[in-house]
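Rotation project, supervised by the postdoc (A.L.). Task for the rotation student: set up a whole-complex structure prediction and record inputs and outputs verbatim in this book. Inputs entered:
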Amino acid sequence: MAAQVEAKGGTITRRDVIWSWVLWTFFSHACYNYERLQATAFAHAMTPIIRKLYHTPEEIAAALKRHLVFFNTEPNVGGVIHGAVIAMEEQRANGADIDDDAINSIKSGLMGPLAGIGDTISQGTVTPLLLALGIGIAGVSAAAGTQPDLSQLTGNPLGAIVYIVLEVAVILALAYFFYMQGWVRGREFVTDMLRSGALDRLITGAGVLGNLVLGALAATFVAVYIAPTVSVGAESLNIQRDLLDKIFPGLLPLGLVLLTWWLIRRGVSPIRVLVVYLVICLVGAFPFFGEAPQYVTDKCGSAIFQPYGPCPPPAQQGQQ
Amino acid sequence: MRIPIRRFVGVALVAAGLLAMLPAAVLAQDGGEKITVSLVQAALIGFGYYMAQGPWLFGMGFFTLYRPLVAGFFVGLILGDPAKGTLIGAAINLIYLGFISAGGQIPGDPALAGWVGTTLALAGNLDYGAALALAVPIGLLGTVIWNARMTGNVVFVHYADRKAEEANIGEVARANWLYPQIYLFLITFVPVFLAAYLGTGFVTDILNALPIWVLNGLAVAGGVLPAIGIAMNMRFIFRGAVIPYFFLGYLMMVASNRSLSIVIIGAIGLALAYLHVYFVGQRERGAAMAAAATAKQVASEMKSGTEA
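Outputs recorded:
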């Protein structure tokens, strides 16, 4: 090598790619912005590669500008794009016929699908699953909604620690794996991976797990209790406890989740949904049917909605 | 480039709100037995919120400190009660269970709700409904900080463009990792520090003045709001042939009277995911083989037909 110093090109070592991965993983969202999202972070992650491959100011400027264009993907699974682009830059600098368009089309063509896949895996499945685990350990279980007074409960800090350890381990392992695979096996690997259906199987599997977990979380943590009763003969029946839950237990929370999903899918902004729900909850808690409550749980049936669990049957309520 | 004026209006509103807290905090000094947040503690809490948004933890801030469960734990550590801090953080986290950030948009700021919400709830000795009562509007307010960040950072992108023209690799890198951090620190540390230091007395006094039915309503909302996070997550994964698994998960929990551990659900989910992918794959392979066999048969029939 020393005898034949190349004016053009260079060799990328594993160390360069690992350094690039470290820069990307640290700073992928350091300059996140509405105009070009992760553009500067992509260019930043490419700086060790550019330093190695390009030596004239013109080449360096061109390479920097090539990677300062709009870019946005899920930073961990999407790292496979960076790996593939590094492989392409290496070939290009050493004389292969790869133009700007080829690199741009790999970036813009893959960032969308991989954002979808990455979000499904990291934010859609792994994070809620581990959060639910941590929240359970912390002491807020299914009983969360039935315990108005947090001072009566003691929490467990282990919930947060277990979550941190597991989450970081899973996410970093995913990120490193995809970045390195992209580099070692190149863009053919990425396009093949998309074409062969291996990723389809992965995303279907994640969809199965994610749906099961989300369904379980919905049943555990979404709670709606309505107070009104209807009189049937001498008995007064609570609409929810004695009618709806007899037909299908947990019907109201499930209906609420599906309604919310339908609204958001139709393009209603989640923040608008949140504000509307908040107003409905407040109005529904106003004591239309009786005197105003003196403590957070002491009146049952004086409003439409009931916090902290279903109303006890009337006889029991009298005893309390 | 679109930078709606309302984002700047939003930033101005937050600034005005924080200024308005100053006299209120002075007025509210005759409060009851609450934990007072010292200057150092408030600074640590503000720093924690900055770290949740900043890149310094191997980029893992978003997956750890950004979550109210973790924020609650650290606020608890700072204020001397990690067990209760974790508990409050976990309760606040329920609203953001399905939180998903996609395409640069966030539907609320779990980190601000976690860091400030836990601080105020812990310092004011609030109950569940009141803690949520705080967390919801604080989380909404956090989107203003997010928008300020996403809008302001545009300046550094244009700076990077200029330096790229000059082939200045170091400056392009610093335009990404260094300069935006100074700005981010200002818009995250300062408001949280002020809210933690000055807000506690003020906010708890307001909550104590509210009628009970409002707190009840907010507690009801605590049961309803997790549906939004879950629904946002469903937008990504509740589609196609895997939809029934959502109802299966729901029914497993309801049928077990909500006593199944999430670890068991996760393990069953992994098994089902394997089976689903395996059988779908086998059916496709079977279909492909059948198609190939038919084609072969047709070909041989045609061949024998021409021979006959």
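Student's summary: The radius of gyration of chain A is 28 Å.
Supervisor addendum: Chain A has a mean pLDDT of 84.
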